[in-house]
Amino acid sequence: MLAKARCPVCTLQPPCKHYNTADDIVSDAHKIINQPDFKEAINASKREKLLNQLKRETNKLPITFNND
């Protein structure tokens, strides 16, 4: 969902009642990725691909997640 800029809550493309723009979703991506249920639902290789894509799109510091 995140890679396709869809709302992770309702799966609609923004604007929706959760996010106004795709940029809002990308800015919250690190919070979404760090949620335990996200880690359980997405395998490690897909998470890494998503993290790499988010890094390219945001041009910010590396996005990391805890391996609990």
Quick recap of the structure?
The protein has helices at residues 22-33, 36-41, 44-58.
Share of residues in helices: 40-55%
Report how far apart the termini are: 23 Å
Stretches with pLDDT under 50, minimum 5 residues: none
Q: Helices and strands: which structural class?
A: mainly alpha
User: What proportion strand?
Assistant: under 5%
Task: Give the overall silhouette.
Answer: globular
- Radius of gyration from the CA trace? 12 Å
Description of the molecule:
With 68 residues, the protein is mainly α. Helices cover 49% and strands 0% of the residues. It contains three helices and no strands. It has helices at 22-33, 36-41, 44-58. α1 packs across α3. The longest helix has 15 residues, at 44-58. It is globular and about 30 Å long. It starts with 21 loop residues before the first helix and ends in a 10-residue tail after the last helix.
Task: Write the topology of this structure.
Layout: H1 22-33, H2 36-41, H3 44-58
Helix pairs in contact: 1-3
Provide key terms for this protein.
single chain, mainly alpha, 49% helix, 68 residues
